[in-house]
Specification:
Blueprint (H helix, E strand, L loop, with lengths): L7 H8 L3 H11 L4 E2 L7 E2 L2 H16 L9 E5 L8 H14 L4 E6 L4 H5 L8 H6 L26 H4 L10 E3 L6 H12 L7 H10 L13 E6 L5 H8 L3 E7 L5 H18 L4 E7 L6 H13 L14 H7 L6 H4 L4 H17 L5
Parallel strand pairs: 3-6, 3-7, 4-5, 4-6, 7-8
Antiparallel strand pairs: 1-2
């Protein structure tokens, strides 16, 4: 993914440090940063440069002892659409990476909204890409289904499938397109055949984390995030069963008691049926403390799901659609590092890292 380059002040804001510190890190890390061609030789940082600096700082802070590793799997899921789930997922992955963490985010929605948010074409064939002047790396030819052990169309390795829109140290993406729907069909057929398909993803993650599956080696990642479709499916259920946490955004403008109640019942049923259920974390989106309705909904949620409620929220802002429609097509936390919404996303990301028990670089 390309985008408008950043000046050093914006980089310092994204990394939560000073301009002088950024300049020192560039020299210490030996990172090659372009300079403005005309006028003052101002450094112009790419998104890749920024994530490289974040990783360098994190690694240096860990020192020779190394980072205390705790791999975490989380699914970002809401039973109904329109709550800002994918926008939050894409921005959180970037914020986690800006803390120096290695992130793998998996688009499990065959509509591919997260994949498009990260700048990839989900509907073009290779021939159409060539005709449009695009490289094959900009289109989607494989997805999470291609990584599963029994994929009938030829299994591929993670290295073949993964996209790196912001370079090696930014979030890595397993993309999605319409053909991902075939995986849900495959899981359904396997269930009819008496196979325990609901644990397919959990087994993949277990073997991948242990380095036992050369096709799906995920040992280097700190967090694996699934962005699941709103609809209930075998694919979504499998991701939730494989997760340590379910992060559920709720719209404080159009809060649905039924939606949260449904999700809570699903997690309870999982615990009863298979003795496994991820921890629920609720994130309030479109929050407006000045609206009586919002505050009433807040009271309802905190009374019923107090342990799950995250004490940081995100307000409605025009910055989100503006960032998505901008020429750079960057997630908001990169497109507008000085935005109040970015500050809120940063606070939510840090609070989530604390809840997930992951070292905040």
């Amino acid at each position: 993914m390309t985008g408008k380059p950043f000046k050093v002040q914006a980089v310092a804001k994204m990394l939560g440090t000073t301009v002088d510190s950024v300049r020192r890190m560039v020299v210490d890390a030996g990172i090659d940063v372009a300079r403005q061609e005309h006028g003052p030789k101002t450094r112009l940082f790419s998104a890749e440069n920024v994530f490289d600096l974040a990783r360098y700082r994190s690694t240096k802070k860990a020192g020779t002892k190394g980072r205390s590793r705790k791999q975490v799997v989380a699914t970002i899921y809401a039973p109904k659409g329109g709550v800002g789930k994918t926008t939050i997922a894409g921005n959180l992955a970037c914020r986690f990476s800006l803390r120096g963490l290695k992130i793998l985010i998996v688009d499990l929605d065959f509509q591919g909204n997260l994949t498009m948010m990260y700048g990839f074409e989900t509907e073009m064939t290779p021939e159409e890409a060539v005709a449009a002047g695009l490289s094959r790396s900009q289109i989607v030819e494989s997805h999470f289904g291609s990584l599963t052990p029994n994929w009938p169309y030829g299994r591929r390795t993670l290295a073949d499938v993964v996209k790196k829109p912001f370079g090696e140290n930014g979030p890595h993406l397993v993309p999605a397109d319409l053909t991902l729907d075939r995986l849900d069909t495959l899981l359904t057929f396997e269930t009819f055949e008496g196979k325990n398909s609901e644990f397919t993803i959990a087994r993949m993650l277990r073997d991948g984390m242990a380095g036992k599956d050369p096709f799906f080696d995920i040992r280097t990642y700190d967090i694996i995030l699934f962005d699941a479709a709103p609809a209930k499916s075998r694919l979504t259920r499998g991701a939730i069963l494989a997760s340590d946490y379910v992060i559920s955004p709720v719209s404080m403008e159009k809060f649905s008691t039924k939606a949260l109640s449904y999700l809570s019942s699903v997690l309870t049923e999982m615990q009863e049926q298979v003795e496994r259920s991820p921890e629920l974390v609720i994130v309030g989106n479109f929050f407006d403390a000045g609206r009586v309705r919002t505050m009433g909904q807040l009271m309802t949620i905190t009374q019923t799901y107090n342990d799950a409620w995250l004490d940081h929220t995100i307000r409605r802002s025009e910055d989100f659609p503006k960032a998505l429609n901008a020429d750079s097509d960057l997630p908001l936390v990169l497109a507008k590092p000085n935005s109040p919404s970015t500050a809120e996303l940063t606070a939510v990301a840090d609070a989530l890292l604390a809840r997930l028990g992951v070292a905040n670089g």
